[in-house]
Design a protein that fits this description.
This protein is of the alpha+beta class and about 350 residues long. Helix content is about 20%, strand content about 50%.
């Protein structure tokens, strides 16, 4: 009985020794597959940053990373791991941020930023100009741009539902940039005073001007009118004119103000007529075209507002003028040169 029972126990152990490895072999790969199929949680996502390969100029990486950590503080992203190159990004990094200075020079003002999704290969990029941004604000501005790109990449993944666990929702719009560039179009309504010293004439008028920036230049088109009068013992001489102007020149803008400098050509039509103080005085009327060319400078503040007050100064020669006379004495008109001061408002749609 003891020998038979011992053989039975050895037989059971032999069967268990055969069955258990097979069961473990079948169970373990399934557990690995189930574990591999489980998507990483959102809190496990991290961001790696690749610094510029250009060594011609110093790039403020430390202030930039500090600002980026602040911008991504509420996004459940682990920010930020610094890697020497894009190939050095860790396998656990969900996003790879690459920063490059364009062109590669000590005075390069453009920065090309790209955000690459390691899991699905999605990528967004943008090139921004820091030419008009003060040096202390550049890390903050660049961090805002990178945070906006990361939000847009997460939103695309959620809409198409192609990335496992892509539950990143943009709860609030991106924070506004501390520097606001001038808008593409502005309309100016101005009141102006024009002085013609050669005829001791002061003209009052109004003007509507349309300005379109183009790269670092500005193009202006305006229409306006002017009125002047001169009093004499024999009566009054009145001046009226309507004109159109065209201006072009460089534009200098900052966070606080917009400076426009350039040449302005003006072509118009003027009417002159007299009103006699006595019945025996004979009056006449006439009209002719007038033209002038002036140097103009204008300032608008503040640069980021849709409605900006401004002032403009202009002076130059009169190319073709006209004058009104009393007893062969010129008393009103436009000849020689002129000086102009304009005050108004610039409105951006």
């Amino acid at each position: 009985m003891s020998i038979r029972r011992a053989r039975q126990r050895r037989s059971v152990c032999h069967r268990l020794g055969t069955v258990l490895p097979i069961a473990l072999f079948l169970a373990c790969p399934q557990a690995e597959v189930a574990s591999a199929a489980t998507p990483p949680t959102f809190s496990e996502r991290s961001v790696a940053v690749s610094p510029p390969s250009c060594r011609a100029g110093l790039f403020p990486m430390v202030p930039f990373l500090d600002s980026l950590r602040v911008e991504l503080a509420g996004s459940n992203l682990a920010c930020c791991t610094l890697t020497e190159s894009s190939s050095g990004a860790t396998a656990t990094a969900w996003l790879l941020v690459s920063v490059e200075v364009v062109p590669c020079s000590s005075d390069g003002q453009d920065v090309q930023v790209s955000v690459h999704g390691q899991s699905d290969g999605r990528e967004v990029e943008r090139t921004i100009s820091l030419d008009d941004v003060v040096a202390t604000a550049r890390p903050r501005v660049l961090a805002l741009v990178v945070a906006e790109l990361i939000r847009s990449l997460g939103q695309v993944a959620q809409d198409e539902a192609s990335v496992p666990g892509a539950d990143f929702v943009q709860d609030s719009p991106p924070a506004p940039s501390p520097f606001v560039r001038p808008v593409s179009l502005s309309v100016h309504v101005e009141g102006e005073t024009r002085v013609v010293p050669t005829l001791d004439t002061t003209m009052w008028g109004g003007r509507a001007r349309f300005t379109v920036p183009w790269h670092k230049l500005h193009l202006d088109v305006d229409v306006g009118f002017d009125y002047a009068s001169a009093q004499d013992d024999l009566g009054e001489v009145l001046w009226q004119s309507a004109s159109i102007g065209l201006g072009v020149g460089p534009r200098f803008s900052s966070r606080m103000a917009i400076f426009d400098l350039g040449l302005r050509a003006e072509l118009g039509w003027a009417w002159i007529h007299g009103e006699a103080s006595f019945s025996g005085v004979r009056t006449r009327a006439g009209s002719d075209f007038v033209s002038n060319l002036g140097l103009r400078i204008s300032v608008e503040v503040p640069a980021g507002m849709k409605v900006r007050p401004g002032i403009a100064l202009e002076a130059g020669p009169v190319l073709h003028g006209m004058k009104g006379e009393v007893s062969s004495r010129p008393v009103v008109g436009m000849t020689g040169y002129y000086m102009l001061v304009a005050l108004g408002l610039a409105v951006s749609p």
